[in-house]
Amino acid sequence: MAVRTLRRLLPCVALSIMAAQVAAQPTDPGTVQQVDPSDYALLEADLPAGMSLPDGINLEGRRMALTSIDADGNIVEQDSRVLEVMQQIDIDGGDDHSVHMRVVILDSPERAQILAQNSVDSDLVGVNDLGDPRLSADGGSRVAPGWVFIRYRDVCARFNLIGRHDDEGGAHTERVARLWLDKVAGPPGADLSLDPDLIRLKFRSDYEFVEREPAADRQHVIAEIKNKSENVVAQGVQARLSVQMPGDDEYTPLQIVDLGDIAPGTWEVATFEWDLKGEQVTLAGLLVDTWADGPRD
User: Fold this and answer.
1) Helix-strand-coil split of the chain, %, nearest 5
2) Is the pTM of this model over 0.85?
3) Burial degree of 198 (CB within 10 A; 0-12, 13-18, 19+)
4) What are the backbone angles phi and psi of residue 146, rounded to the nearest 5°?
5) Which residues are within 8 A (CB) of 14 and not within 5 positions of it... i.e. 6 or more apart?
6) pLDDT tens, position by position, 161-202
7) Helix (H) or strand (E) holding 275
8) Residue 196, H or E segment
9) Distance (Å, rounded) from C-alpha 110 to C-alpha 127?
10) Does the pLDDT of residue 59 top 80, yes or no?
């Protein structure tokens, strides 16, 4: 993932985040016919010990009627070509818990939003009960007792608990949903974090390896990069320092440092050298962003 944090050389810190949703154009309905169902199904190799597929994979291609309401309040119906993938995942033989999975692959992300609205009364834009960063930009999720619903790009998937409805069954249902998301969206990336208050120009004296100014016109800047993931190693972490000088409209990148891998729950210090070019600098802005190999959230 990537993290961008800025800090002004002032007593206060300002941070602004802005996001915009861009509507996708409908694709040719023939796109669904080109889908490989195995890309959206759970195979035996995808399942951990204790889970099994008693009935394999069931497929159905058909047209689906979708209903939406336009800006004038009129009901609009449209046909969408879909491919459905249906499976049952047994937990420990299925005596107490099984999960029925129904995946619908549509011909555009817009129509996936309509199907979500028809299914769970929400297009899931900005709704992410699973809290998975992979869904923040490209989908959404809703979790309720006995089921989980995911919209990801042009796909909707519902996971229904079969058997005993209890906390354990709910946990199994959510686990299957996350396994499917790993299959379709790729494994989750590391959750890197950077606190603006931990971007500093000077550190304590017992940190001599970062508190050094080889010349009066060179300033060392440090930033503490944390991996907040519980079980994902942040691999190939890099951090970049950019500076916005007084009067400039944009930040200018100065230096990128390699931090290697950061284990879950740990942190590393990025140390940058800022060449002041013989000038006294005040009221400049510092921007540090960081990223790792793999998916970005």
Assistant:
1) 15, 40, 40
2) no
3) middle
4) 90, -5
5) 6, 8
6) 999 999 999 999 999 999 999 999 987 778 888 888 888 876
7) strand 267-275
8) strand 192-200
9) 16
10) yes
Q: Which two three-digit tokens encode residue 145?
A: 């007792």
pLDDT at position 3 over 70: no
Closest Cα partner for 259 from 281, 296, 294, 234? Answer: 234
Rounded to whole angstroms, how far apart are CA atoms 199 and 225? 10
User: Which H/E stretch holds residue 171?
Assistant: helix 167-185
User: Between the CA of residue 295 and those of 2, 55, 160, 174, 182, what are the distances in Å?
Assistant: 9, 32, 28, 21, 11
Q: Which residues pair with 4 in a beta bridge?
A: 289
What is the C-alpha separation between 102 and 94, in angstroms, rounded? Answer: 18
DSSP bridge partners of 192: 227
Q: How far is Cα 92 from Cα 192, in angstroms, rounded to an integer? A: 35
For the chain, the C-alpha Rg in angstroms (whole number) is 24
